[in-house]
Design brief:
InterPro entries: Plipid/glycerol_acylTrfase (IPR002123)
Strand content: 5-15%
Largest sheet: 3 strands, parallel
Number of strands: 7
GO molecular function: 1-acylglycerol-3-phosphate O-acyltransferase activity
Order of helices and strands: EHEHEHEEEEH
Structural class: alpha/beta
Radius of gyration: 17 Å
Pathway: Phospholipid metabolism; CDP-diacylglycerol biosynthesis; CDP-diacylglycerol from sn-glycerol 3-phosphate: step 2/3
Keywords: Acyltransferase, Membrane, Transferase, Transmembrane, Transmembrane helix
EC number: 2.3.1.51
Helix content: 25-40%
Length: about 160
């Protein structure tokens, strides 16, 4: 993970030792309620990606709800990739069953993580954003559904 950082929602910055450690390690915290500031931070991140050849790990759903679906994507990651003319490397996490949402505790479990081939943004403009976002999302949905099948067979989750 050399020269890689994560874009995360700002409230995580205040999550005790985790937030402090994340801040020290260079996470980019985005305040989704202040869109102008979020855009400026994403612009700075884009400049850093270009200048330092850094990688950013962005969760385009914004938040994951473990309901058997991949949520619609936010646009920031795709603006960044197009502006920097860098490829998107989709990473898909299957459904999970080991997090108890009510008690916020973990139990033993399994998640399948799949890295897809890079999606080039060379030559794309912001006019291509919707198509790029939807293409990435559709590819990820296919893999999400396939990687979650094993968990369905084990009767750990329902789709």
């Amino acid at each position: 993970m050399k020269r890689c950082t994560v874009v995360a929602k700002r409230p995580l910055m205040f999550a005790g030792a985790f937030g402090f450690g994340a801040w020290l390690s260079g996470l980019v915290f985005i305040d989704r309620l202040k869109s102008d500031k979020a855009r400026r931070l994403m612009k700075q991140a884009t400049d850093r990606v270009i200048r330092e050849k850094t990688k950013l790990w962005i969760f385009p759903e914004g938040a994951r709800y473990n309901n058997g679906n991949i949520q619609p994507f936010k646009k920031g990651a795709f603006y960044l990739a197009i502006d920097a003319q860098v490829p998107i490397m989709p990473v898909v996490f299957s459904q999970y069953y080991f997090l108890d949402n009510e008690t916020k505790t973990f139990e033993p479990g399994k998640v399948v993580i799949t890295t897809l081939p890079p999606i080039s943004t060379k030559g794309m403009t912001r006019n291509d954003l919707e198509n790029l976002s939807e293409m990435a999302r559709q590819k990820m949905i296919e893999v999400f559904n396939e990687s979650s099948k094993d968990l369905v067979k084990q009767k750990k989750i329902a789709i």
